[in-house]
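Internal ticket #5521
Category: modeling
Description: The requester needs a full-assembly model to guide mutagenesis choices. All entity lines are attached below as received. Residue total reported by intake: 689.
Assigned to: D.W.
Attached entities:
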Amino acid sequence: MNSLRRGIRNAFRNSMRSVGVVVILAVAIALSISMLIARDAVTTKINNVRSSTGTTITISPKGFFGFSGGGTPLKAASIDDLLTLKNVVSVQESLSEELSSSTTNLKSPTPTGSLGRQFGANSSTSGNSNFTGRGNFTIPVRVIGTNSPGTALVGGANGGGTEKLTSGASFSATSHADVAVVGADLASKNKLKVGSTFTAYGTTITVVGIYNSGSSFADSDVLMPLATVQSLAKATGDVTDATVSVNNVNNVASVSKAVTAKIGSSADVTSTEATTEAELAPLNSVKTISTYTLIGAIIGAAIILLLSMLMIVRERRREVGVLKALGAPNRSIIGQFIAESTTFTVLGAIVGFVVGAALSSPIASALVSTTSNANTSNQTGFIRGGRGSFTGGASGFTPPSGGNFRSGAFRPTSLHNTFDTLHTSVGWSTLTYAVLIAIVIAAIGSTVATATIVRIRPAEVLRSE
Amino acid sequence: MLTVQNLNKTFRTPAGDVHAVRDVTFHAKNGEMVAIIGASGSGKSTLLALLGLLDAPDQGSIDVDGVELANLDSAGRTKYRSQKVGFVFQAFNLIPNLTARENVLLALEYAHWPKAERAARADEMLSLVGLSGEKVDRRPNRLSGGEQQRVAIARAFAPQPDLILADEPTGSLDKSTGQKIVELLRHTASSQQATVLVVTHDDKVARQADRRLEIDDGALAEIA
């Protein structure tokens, strides 16, 4: 029987103590594993959210928001120049206009309601032509000229629904044609189909496609080629909104600075990075908590094992002396005690791994729920809305280049919904980390015992008698 | 042959130096049983620890069959303890979770006894001390005091050491059992041609030895 076998056998010498040590280690290791899994899940979620929402920068005229505020339109030439910046993938431009009853035969499907009358009344002071006296206000039809219709129409899910072409086709990014893709609600209100026509700015526009987003606000719009809108609205070279896509979320801050430097003080440059980071704060908190808990649990387990082994070695001090008197080398005795502590750790790791894997999902959900609730209560002032704003979500939606679609209007609640889809999983990497954790615990747990064994002199076997 | 010359050991304590062993010189032949008697605190156990290389002397030499033990390094001392010397303790000091046979096998393992021969050697030694059958598979707590000391003797003699150091081997046993253990030690020493040093304060035990030495305040003297 060698030292290894004797050590394993010694682990079961005192069954009550062995069970106690294994159970305590299992609890600590289960906590470590569940925190490890939760941390991995949260990290994956953070990376997913960042990669899907955090790579865009929105540029709009200074002081301009939707159809509120003021400012001077941006110039397409200076916006196009942003493509030369490092790490910029694409630049989407749009020009937003309102079509009044004097410039189009279209009627907005949006009911005026008290809000519309209130905003319409406010707008009258700035000369809104749709206002014909309190109670006669009609909602104007929004037209967005865009050079990225594909992005605008096939963007992912958003808070208002999913934008999908339900019939027809889109137009090309560089089109100058008098064509439009209209929202489903607008099409229904005006009995438009693919091939139908309507008038805008005194020109006949042909409907080439109809989209549906599930949002009444977005489905009341008209999308047209940017060049066409610029021409019809006599706003050649004007842009009211631009969205710069960056290749990596980590480069958003530097590109944002470069854009500000290039555009100058005449534009508001906002990135989704700040809002995304604010939204991700609960997940980052969970990640931090799980990391510290993981480290704490490992240290705790190591200390438990260390104290247990120290107690065992002190209890067997005479036995160690006997072994030395019999001619056992230190390495043999140390190996025996390491085998014993490793046996405790392996048993604790097996039980802890199973329990930790089972508990990781509810623990992660509980942590996310707790921290995100706390975070939401602190962020209620962040939600923006109202006329001219887009209450889109942040989960995979690339906002179209329209003045109505403003990153600043993202609602925290939409990201919180994505927290509910936090998935925990146990892979080989988790298993590998679990083995490493067990090795670290066993190694630390054995050190003091090893040092004590080396210090025990064989003569003590005689002195203790 | 054991030859000890001018052996000295001093312990430094807060109360001052304690000269536990003073200029001890003696010799013992192979197969000879020598009793060392002395009062408590006279230096008996310290002398035993020095001879068994459980502790290092300050001065002097210990020669076992031509090998000077004072010159051994740490590995050499460990090897000496495993192959050249056997211990029998008053409290038996068997490993509690090992059976009688496993306790003997442990000594053979540390002595690097050929693996294939260990089991036979362990059974032979246990049989020699009067233990056989299912008793050899019992753990120490299921053996009597006398039986445990027999296992300890089998363990000490199993690697065929040159020197057996017995520290009060009858101290935890009744008179009758103690008598048998001393006879066993004497008989085994003779059959194995090993030198046996028995430390005791029991004069009756000492009288069964071939020679008697008395230690007093660290100094050793032969009793006629």
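Resolution: model delivered.
Comment from assignee: The first helix of chain A runs from residue 3 to 10.
Ticket closed.
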